[in-house]
């Protein structure tokens, strides 16, 4: 199982200049991937911007959005944005997406929370078309340079529609930031949907957890603040923040036993030393 680390772009009032340095240090430490968590109605750095900054600061580490709220974006714009980040990084981006749950993130007129699942199904067709180099609707020009690729997609969510989209239109599934025992059912559902769709092999499975080593109290408080509007899910996430080596290593063992391909450990603070603290334990 590969171990990645999240960028602190979701930390309230993050010191934005830390992001490129964080990415470089994560790559130097040997983490397999850098992840982003993002929303619009929150004082952090946009996930696409964080990914672009990480792409420019590194050369080999994989990049992953976990997950980007795709339905808040005009579809052609997001397709170009993702393709651009992927190209700048040399083909290191995986776009993890979902339909979103917080109404205040839907700030673009015509892209509200209503019918967002229907929009997602339509948007996926546009992403593929744009990435294939087809012309932008209404224009003779494509949106992306020649020689690009279909950006790998992963889906988050636990509804039947989310599993259906994952199996029919993506490379795999991202579970929520919960303990392995709770994520197990979601991974089983993803595998079942994959098989039902007649897909060969297995879906790529990505797990998410949080950590706070240098200042556990502040880390938990930041994570609680980010998930404040999610009800019981907030308690699950905050209660599963890893603050010591024993907890982290136990979580890794449990996710490995589930057959997960990748575990991304997200930070609770933007303290740059958290990268080395985590690396000393898990790598």
UniProtKB/TrEMBL annotation:
The keyword Flavoprotein applies. InterPro entries: Luciferase-like_dom (IPR011251), Luciferase-like_sf (IPR036661), SsuD_RutA_monooxygenase (IPR050172). Residues 19-245 form the Luciferase-like domain. Keywords: Flavoprotein, FMN, Monooxygenase, Oxidoreductase. This is LLM class flavin-dependent oxidoreductase. It comes from Streptomyces rhizosphaericola.
């Amino acid at each position: 199982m590969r171990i990645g680390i999240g960028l602190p772009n979701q930390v309230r009032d993050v010191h934005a200049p830390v992001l490129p340095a964080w990415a470089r240090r994560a790559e130097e430490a040997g983490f397999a991937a850098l992840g982003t968590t993002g929303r619009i109605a929150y004082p952090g750095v946009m996930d696409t911007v964080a990914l672009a900054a990480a792409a420019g600061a590194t050369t080999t580490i994989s990049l992953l959005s976990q997950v980007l709220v795709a339905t808040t974006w005009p579809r052609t714009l997001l397709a170009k944005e993702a393709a651009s980040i992927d190209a700048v990084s040399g083909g290191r981006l995986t776009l993890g997406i979902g339909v979103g749950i917080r109404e205040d993130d839907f700030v673009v007129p015509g892209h509200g929370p209503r019918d967002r699942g229907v929009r997602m199904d339509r948007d996926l067709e546009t992403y593929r078309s744009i990435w294939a180099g087809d012309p932008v609707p209404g224009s003779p020009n494509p949106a992306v340079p020649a020689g690009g690729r279909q950006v790998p997609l992963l889906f988050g969510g636990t509804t039947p529609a989310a599993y259906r989209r994952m199996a029919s239109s993506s490379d795999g599934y991202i579970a929520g930031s919960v303990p392995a025992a709770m994520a197990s059912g979601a991974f089983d559902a993803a595998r079942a949907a994959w098989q039902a769709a007649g897909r060969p092999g297995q879906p790529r499975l990505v797990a998410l957890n949080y950590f706070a080593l240098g200042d556990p109290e502040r880390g938990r408080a930041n994570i609680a603040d980010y998930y404040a509007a999610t009800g019981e899910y907030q308690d699950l996430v905050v209660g599963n923040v890893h603050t010591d080596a024993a907890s982290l290593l136990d979580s890794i063992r449990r996710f490995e036993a589930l057959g997960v391909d990748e575990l991304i450990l997200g930070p609770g603070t933007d303290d740059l030393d958290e990268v080395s603290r985590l690396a000393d334990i898990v790598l």
